[in-house]
Amino acid sequence: MKELLVSPYVNSILSDSPLKHIARLQCAQHVLARVVLQERSRAHSTQLMQQLHWLPIEWRIRFKLATLTYKALQTSRPPYLADLMQFHTTPKSTRSSSTQLLFVPR
Question: Can you give the pTM of this predicted structure?
Answer without folding.
Answer: 0.74
